[in-house]
Amino acid sequence: MLSFWHNFVDTIFVLIASKGLSLQLSSHFFGDLLDSIIVDVASECHRIARLGLDRNLEEEEEEMRLSAQARLRVADPSNSSEANGKYIVDIFGQNHPSVASEIFECMNCGRSVMAGKFAPHLEKCMGKGRKARLKVTRSSTAAQNRNSRGSPASAYSPYSNSTSSNRLSNGTSSVAGEEYSNGAFEDP
Amino acid sequence: MRGSINRPPTPDAEDDQIQEKQLTFQEIIDIKLIESGEKERLKELLRERLIECGWRDEMKALCRAFAQKKGRDNVTLDDLVQLLTPKGRASVPDSVKAELLQRIRSFLASAAI
Q: Where does the record place Low complexity bias (chain A) (predicted)?
């Protein structure tokens, strides 16, 4: 009976000891694995530091911070939107006037134009579009004469321009009507 | 008599093994872990969990801060290991540690005892 009891107690001890042993061992091996990973991370960071690769990281972080700021500014309802005010705030926080104000030279007629008014200017300048006035230059003349329904004989004479276009602008039957009285380039 | 005859006998391979230090229980388990490939798998698992929870990024930030303070060219690998070991060990999330410990204990149960 006693030996049975001894065996029983011994078994319990062994179980407790082995559980303790198991815990201790597993902690040890966990520490081993963790140390190994720590060395890996340290090694990588050491390399980055010595090669100066974190310089790029700093720039990237700065960019991300700026874009996050800008995003906040855009999402903020108190900012003036396109519908409300004259100025639009874009994601970089810059203001844009609704009409582009840069001034440059038109490559067709040589006049100074404002960027925001360039499209309508070109319409008049190149002779397309409603009620655009005629511009008497060599290039527009050649274009008109190319497209006009007049006689080929007058094609290269600068002075025939007014007669041929006058003919057209007086409402002669031209397929496209008024729009094309100024010698448009394209057919509809 | 030639001098070479008197030289001591070549030690036996068997004798070497007996004189060798006995492997500890721990070392035996370690060998089993490595040979079965489980150690590598455990390391990968731990690495993955530590990345997921942001631990690795924290460690990298610590290193970067240290390098900026000490000067990039003055940093040694030893510095960084010394820096990361206490903080690294302390900041592992409990769930990650528990998961790894459980897996290790399962291995011990199946392989060792």
A: 148-174
Per-domain boundaries in chain A: 100-129
The pTM of this model reads 0.51
ipTM summary value: 0.81
| A46 contacts B63? CB cut-off 8 A | yes
Q: Which of A31, A39, A41 sits opposite B60 (nearest CB)?
A: A41
Contact A37 B30 (CB under 8 A): no
Fold entry, domain A100-129: Double Stranded RNA Binding Domain (3.30.160)
3-state class (DSSP) for residue A96? strand
Which three-class secondary structure state does DSSP give residue A104?
Answer: strand
Q: pLDDT tens for residues B37-63? A: 999 999 999 999 999 999 999 999 999
Cα–chain center distance at B56:
18
Distance CA B88, CA A42 (A): 11
- The alpha helices in A76-137, defined as continuous H runs, are 118-125
**Consecutive H or E run containing B88:** helix B77-90
Q: How far apart are CA A72 and CA A70, in angstroms?
A: 5
Phi, psi of A133 (to 5 degrees): -75, 155
A147-175 pLDDT, tens digit each: 555 445 544 544 544 444 444 444 444 44
Amino acid occupying residue A6: H
For B25, the token pair is 């229980």
